[in-house]
Amino acid sequence: MDRVFNFSAGPAVLPLEILRQAQAELPNWHGSGMSVMEMSHRGKEYMSIQAEAEADLRELMGIPSSYKVLFLQGGASLQFAMVPMNLLRGRTSVDYLNTGEWSKKAIKEAGKFGAVTVIASSEDRNFTYAPPPSQWKLNPDAAYVHITQTETIGGVEIFDAPDTGSVPLVSDMSSMILSRPIDVSKYGLIYAGAQKNIGPAGLTIVIVREDLLGQTVAGTPTMMDYKIQADNDSMYNTPPTYAIYIAGLVFKQLKALGGLAATEKANHEKARILYDALDASSFFQSPVAKENRSLMNVPFTLENPELDEEFLKGAKARGMIQLKGHRSVGGMRASIYNAMPVEGVQALTDYMKEFEKTRS
Ligand SMILES: *Cc1c(COP(=O)(O)O)cnc(C)c1O
To answer: Is the N or the C terminus of the chain less surrounded, counting Cβ atoms within 10 Å?
Structure first.
């Protein structure tokens, strides 16, 4: 066994070709005589890397010119605070959809800055679905509406971004960004930690409509002001240069593979193989409502949880790791991000069938 099939939710699998390219370029990037890690972030070599990464991301996602792209730090978790600090804009209340563990954390943090209205919740069915927009009790005076586009732990994805009228829609896309095309113009702000479906940990991407900037709550630290970050091209201080470089390589590869439409097609195929295997079995189950089954994070349970440990052990022996479900949900979870090859999903479903046959 050389490389494992890594089903981790994050930090997660990266394309082998990119690891090899980074390895080849490590001591001497493009004749600069140094690695990207050693470059001044204000030198022309590094500035070109970051500018190209932004241009490629804009092209991939079709980001309109009226939006700023920010390369920040602090993870998606820091955005739980930065979003209300920047987007309250003199208002007092904010709307949040509660679909699971990450929504709950975002709600808790927003509550430090404003009055949170939970517009709908799926807690009644243990966060196994997303309440449809027709059930959301939107507050017309809210500063914004926040959704978690994919609950990475629960495996619940929202496929259709609803129309929230003049109230900006804010989305945590940490585990589904770049998994399929989305219409950026439907959103006021999108954020994502890079370590799920993009690149290394340490980079957080924010895409924000320009007209929402510049009205932070009093006392907002300089580093947490989107406008200051935007005015400084995400270089108010030293950006996470190496993580941005690797993310840039990922963007280039996705473009070369045909963009997000092609990526979506591959992701649908991988997800179909896994969900079909779950649906065909009475030994394994997917707890998630069909219309909200994430393409990226697939939790599943064994009918007999006493076999969990044995299942995980056998998977590991076959080179498949990080399949244990989150402690809050139990069971298994396979994260099948862009960089997970279809062979990994095939190996998993083959093993599941074999395990079922010998244990049932
Ligand atoms: C992982 C994750 C987070 C937290 O990300 P950090 O970058 O570790 O702060 C937030 N939201 C979602 C949906 C996630 O998957």
So the answer is: N
Question: Of all atoms in ligand 1, which is nearest to the CA of residue 152?
Answer: 15
Whole-Å CA distances, 346 to 23, 54, 274, 277: 28, 34, 8, 10
Q: Which of 155-164, 234-243, 264-273, 315-324 has the lowest mean pLDDT?
A: 155-164
Active site residues: 102, 172, 196
Identify the residue whose C-alpha is closest to ligand 1 atom 14: 174
Q: What percent of the chain stands above pLDDT 70?
A: 100
CATH assignment at residue 86: 3.40.640.10
Q: 27 and 123: one domain?
A: yes
Calculated CA dihedral for residues 139, 145, 151, 155, nearest 10 degrees: 60
175 lines ligand 1 (CB under 6 A): yes
pLDDT in tens, 43-58: 999 999 999 999 999 9
Domain of residue 110 covers: 16-256
Residue 151 has pLDDT above 80, yes or no: yes
Dig out the tokens for 318 from the structure. Answer: 């076959």
Structure tokens at 306: 């006493």
What whole-number distance in Å separates Cα of residue 136 and Cα of residue 96?
Answer: 10
Q: Is residue 1 pLDDT above 70, yes or no?
A: no
Q: Give yes or no for residue 76 CB within 6 A of ligand 1.
A: yes
pLDDT at 161: 79
Give the pTM. Answer: 0.98
Instruction: Please tell me if the CB atom of residue 193 comes closer than 6 angstroms to any atom of ligand 1.
Output: yes
Which residue, 91, 41, 43, is CA-closest to 71? 41
**Do 241 and 135 sit in the same domain of this protein?**
yes
Which of 83, 102, 127, 151 for a ligand 1 pocket mutation test, highest count of atoms within 8 Å of Cβ?
102
Q: What are 70-121's pLDDT values in tens digits?
A: 999 999 999 999 999 999 999 999 999 999 999 999 999 999 999 999 999 9
What is the 2 CA–ligand 1 centroid distance (Å)? 29
- Encode 42-79 in three state secondary structure: CCHHHHHHHHHHHHHHHHHHCCCCCEEEEEECCHHHHH
Residues 319 and 200 in one domain: no
